[in-house]
Design goal:
- There is one protein chain.
- This protein is α+β, with helices and mostly antiparallel strands and about 220 residues long.
- Strands 4-1-3-2-5 form a 5-stranded antiparallel sheet.
- Helix 1 packs antiparallel against helix 4 and helix 5 packs across helix 9.
Length: about 220
């Protein structure tokens, strides 16, 4: 039984990795599929898959703008605050906004991506290492530091280039294209993006020092 219970309005650090530490993102399309899943599966209404949900959204866009606004703001299961996708694992910060929202969202996400991955690479069986892990973010200070840890997690693991994807670009460019994160709970505490960038890098420096990592050039990226 899971020790962490999920409450509406609360924030949680969610993470998991590939079974037997296997790679779960082999190319750019895999990253994009997972990011698309983060958006498409985040709805109260049951859906059969990404294709069906995309078709449903097209239908809804043909209705009034008032209804569109309600659909976009009132039917989510979670707020996605930050993410990082590394070759064999992922990190998310989620805020639950609907009853059992995180459980429903993560079940859809895990099942949907596993089906996509197994079909693409002609494999079967579990892709992830058991149930996703969850830690309650129980203070504002913790939220800020975890946001830095998740946004810069690829640098914690000294990954570069196309080997990972994170929401860091959404945080440093407030109008970034294709943004999927609700950043106000974090960025709303800073007067400008530069202040958050400085905070996050200082937080990363602390992680580097504690873990004894050698390549501090990652702080300059």
């Amino acid at each position: 039984m899971r020790k962490t219970t999920f409450a509406i309005g609360e924030f949680y650090h969610i993470y998991n990795r590939g079974t037997e530490k296997r790679i779960i993102f082999l190319d750019e399309r895999d990253f994009m599929r997972f990011l698309q899943s983060l958006e498409e599966f985040n709805t109260l209404d049951p859906i059969g898959g990404i294709f069906q949900n995309s078709f449903r959204k097209k239908q809804l866009r043909g209705r009034t703008s008032k209804l569109d606004k309600f659909v976009k703001q009132g039917e989510k299961l979670v707020n996605i605050v930050a993410y990082c996708l590394n070759p064999n694992h992922y990190h998310l910060i989620l805020q639950q906004v609907a009853d059992k929202g995180i459980e429903k969202f993560m079940q859809r996400l895990g099942t949907g991506y596993t089906m996509y991955f197994n079909n693409k690479y002609e494999r079967s069986g579990a892709l992830f290492q058991g149930k996703f892990k969850a830690v309650h973010i129980d203070s504002n200070t913790y939220l800020l530091h975890v946001s830095a840890y998740v946004n810069l997690n690829n640098r914690v693991h000294q990954l570069r280039g196309s080997t990972s994807k994170s929401s860091w670009i959404e945080y440093i460019e407030r109008q970034s294209k294709g943004a999927i994160c609700d950043k106000k709970s974090v960025l709303g505490q800073f007067r400008k993006s530069e202040e958050y960038i400085s905070f996050a890098r200082d937080s990363l420096r602390g992680i580097i020092e504690r873990r004894g990592l050698l390549d501090e050039s990652i702080l300059l990226e």
